[in-house]
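Hypothesis: this fold can be encoded by more than one sequence.
Test: take the structure tokens below, design a sequence, compare later.
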């Protein structure tokens, strides 16, 4: 069953949200001991951050593999995938 235009739009938004999660977790990790309660994931261990990023990047890669995308821009999503792959090693 093919996705509707609205479903594709929602999926792309979900991918952008996933990319944001990846970027925020990595940024929080980069702050090290300077991370505060205001930083998402500040209370996570390095392994927990890697697990969170791994789950998010898995979703992005799954979505990108679908073949019914139209003119959506994946620049931010591709950058997050690359950052996630580097972060998780």
């Amino acid at each position: 069953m093919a996705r509707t235009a609205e479903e594709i739009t929602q999926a792309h938004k979900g991918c952008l949200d996933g990319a944001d999660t990846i970027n925020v977790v990595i940024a929080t990790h980069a702050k090290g001991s300077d991370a505060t309660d205001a930083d998402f994931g500040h209370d996570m261990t390095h392994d927990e951050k890697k697990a969170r990023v791994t789950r998010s990047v898995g979703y992005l890669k799954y979505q990108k593999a679908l073949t019914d995308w139209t003119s959506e821009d994946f620049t931010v999503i591709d950058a997050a995938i690359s950052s996630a792959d580097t972060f998780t090693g």
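The helical segments are 5-31, 46-64, 75-88. The longest helix spans residues 5-31.
Hypothesis status: open.
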